[in-house]
Amino acid sequence: xxxxxxxxxxxxxxxxxxxxxxxxxxxxxxxxxxxxxxxxxxxxxxxxxxxxxxxxxxxxxxxxxxxxxxxxxxxxxxxx
Length: 80
What we know:
Blueprint (H helix, E strand, L loop, with lengths): L10 H9 L1 H4 L5 E2 L2 E2 H38 L7
Helix pairs in contact: 1-3
């Protein structure tokens, strides 16, 4: 099982840019006067930013949880 599943968001750019490219490499249809491939790459760029933010957000919470666990595991001083 993955201990940091939020890192899977980093696969989104790979799938959008590389994995789906053979399926979206079309000039037709034209969307807002732009070729479909251009619109796809523009959308993939925006979604890459979202995926990076989701990864950062999840990792921040993961690091905070690790820090809290480390603080809880420290022995108490002066407890004799």
